[in-house]
């Protein structure tokens, strides 16, 4: 007889007792988990919660500005930090997926640490960890799956931060997190959001990352995601995105031959991200999106749709 209202009430009460008048710092990603965790903490301790939202330059188009504004509008004590160029510089020339993840994760920690030092006397670090994160991290510490991707947001804290961790969603699954978010009256634009990886578009640009590739991928992704919304498909899909492929192929435009990049659209159904099926999106929808991308985004002349399920494929390509 778990209910989101009862969870909010008991969690807020427990957080108040646990945290008293202590300050908590927390990094926000714009995603559902960190947002819901932050609003729970906000309800418990108000401005003693200091949120930091870093623009790593690898977010979706306009996401940084839009999400930051909506957090502020909802009364969250949040500071935006535009660090995009620092991430791009650190990533120059790197193509290896795990190294890219490490660079992005490392730079986030560097920026976050600088910001957290500005919050004097903070005792706690808030995190949006949910139950599946906990399980995946445990299984990644040993055994045959030890080489599993380093995409774990758990246990990666640098020692020097020396903060106690508070994770109000640690026992919840994603659907429960969303129900808690609705009970907290967080707007649907945040709650209904698809999962998005921490390294963002950095792992959806196969090969090395440049500012220009990010810009192109943001445009394509925006066409796909807004198309899903327009066709009323967004909420029927667990996660969707676009991968910029390190492939060029020949096309024709007027009398000219082109030799440009290809993208792969990806849309999956899932309940927890551990297994996933590709979504049978309507052909008419795919046709419209493909035309819009090829006619609207310079540098792309071919659109493909990924029809692989997990396992054995993963949701992301890197
Ligand atoms: P895969 O690609 O392993 O992804 O099937 C499963 C889910 O995890 C997300 N993902 C990540 N999330 N950092 C994250 O925070 C990462 O490095 C990362 N890699 C994958 C992916 O988007 C999907 O929701």
UniProtKB/TrEMBL annotation:
Q: How does it assemble?
A: Homodimer.
Q: Name one GO cellular component term.
A: cytosol
Residue span, GMPS ATP-PPase domain: 2-193
Q: Does the record carry Nucleotide-binding as a key word? A: yes
> What does the record give as the reaction this protein catalyses?
XMP + L-glutamine + ATP + H2O = GMP + L-glutamate + AMP + diphosphate + 2 H(+)
Keyword annotations for this protein, in alphabetical order, are: ATP-binding, Glutamine amidotransferase, GMP biosynthesis, Ligase, Nucleotide-binding, Purine biosynthesis
Enzyme class, one word?
ligase
- GO molecular function list: ATP binding; GMP synthase activity
> What function is annotated for this protein?
Catalyzes the synthesis of GMP from XMP.
Entire protein: shown range? 192 to 509 of 509
Tell me the classification of the organism that encodes this protein.
Answer: Bacteria, Pseudomonadati, Bacteroidota, Flavobacteriia, Flavobacteriales
Coiled coil regions in record = none
* Taxonomy, superkingdom: Bacteria
Q: Which residues bind ATP?
A: 29-35
Q: What is the designated name of this protein?
A: GMP synthase [glutamine-hydrolyzing]
Per the UniProt record, which EC number(s) apply here?
6.3.5.2
Is this entry keyworded ATP-binding? yes
Q: In which pathway does it act?
A: Purine metabolism; GMP biosynthesis; GMP from XMP (L-Gln route): step 1/1
